[in-house]
């Protein structure tokens, strides 16, 4: 069995979505003065490697506490979309997705993490038809190694809305996907247990039988 960490480390200089505050991490207690160490951490629900649930874009959508733990784990398949302008239905139809819970897109953007290019370079994004096609396959979720499932200049977030309105969760800012191209594996993206939340940072991992 091989376990691959697909999560970015949370720290103050990490990349965040434009307009989102960076996490603040400060010592609350120290060994020399309190006898123990404890950090105080402030961050948003969409910090680093994180997932989106319906309430993120839908006022009547389900919050994190309304979704079962089984929604955040399952069998996944990783596809390489580097160099593509858009992910189309025809491209997706070549993969057998009937026995897959999560489809993970390797865009190659993770190599730009903590640089300005991570927020400005274009990467392959699902067309609206492709997003609707994925909904029909019955997936639990999709994931990718980029800042958003939509284009970064999008204000209407159409792909978010199509997927989340059908309770297909979205996991963004993954990393280490190059090791998973063309493979099936067990995928886990477990959120913090936050009441009525629109999303949460996750510790995402892949487990392979090899």
Topology summary:
Blueprint: E1 2-5, E2 24-29, H1 31-34, E3 38-42, E4 50-52, E5 73-80, E6 86-87, H2 89-92, E7 102-106, H3 117-120, E8 125-126, H4 128-136, E9 141-144, H5 158-164, E10 169-172, E11 184-191, E12 199-208
Parallel strand pairs: 5-7, 6-8, 7-9, 9-10
Antiparallel strand pairs: 1-12, 2-3, 4-10, 4-12, 5-11, 11-12
Characterize this entry briefly.
This protein is α/β, with parallel strands linked by helices and 210 residues long. Helices cover 13% and strands 29% of the residues.
What can be said about the biggest beta sheet? 7 strands, mixed, barrel
Number of helices: 5
Overall number of domains: 1
Strands of the widest sheet, in order across it, are 4-10-9-7-5-11-12
From N to C, what is the helix and strand string? EEHEEEEHEHEHEHEEE
* CATH-level-4 superfamily name: Putative cyclase
- Secondary-structure-based class equals alpha/beta
- The share of residues in helices is 10-25%
Query: What is the CATH architecture descriptor?
Result: 3-Layer(bba) Sandwich
State which percent range the strand residues make up: 25-35%
Q: Quote the distance from N terminus to C terminus.
A: 5 Å
CATH fold name:
Glucose Oxidase, domain 1
The first-level CATH class is given as Alpha Beta
Tally of DSSP β-strands: 12
Radius of gyration: 17 Å
pLDDT under 50 segments (min length 5)? none
Q: Using the alpha-carbon principal axes, give the shape.
A: globular
| Average of per-residue pLDDT values | 96
